[in-house]
Predict the structure.
Amino acid sequence: MDYARIAKLHNKVFSTPRNSPEREQAINSLSEAERAAVFSLEKDYMLGRITRKEIAEMAQKSNGTISYEQFVKKSESNEKGVMQELAQFAMKSPELYQQYREKWQAERSEQQRLHNRRLTENTFKNKPFSIR
């Protein structure tokens, strides 16, 4: 079975409140094979074999979107063809790409600011006040 489709169905079923008519309706709308796959995925989650984050990433793959962590890895890598993947992602979902890019740039500028601060603190450490 397609894991992305099963992850979407899992999110559809388990995003509803427990013991609610909405969840019962979502479960009843599934075929027998889909129901077994969804509950198998939930069982794996309950046993700790998989996390909610991994389930969400599986569901995102079917949409053609990528997670923020994947975006950061691809943006920082120097591999061939990665920029094409990012460009395709930007064309498919420009709003999400813009959000990811702004968040990533803010994190990088914060890291750079902290790095520069550490450098300056170490430069003037144990120096007379007149040199500072």
In short: The chain has a mean pLDDT of 83. Helices lie at 3-14, 21-28, 32-46, 52-63, 68-76, 82-92, 94-123. The first helix runs from residue 3 to 14.
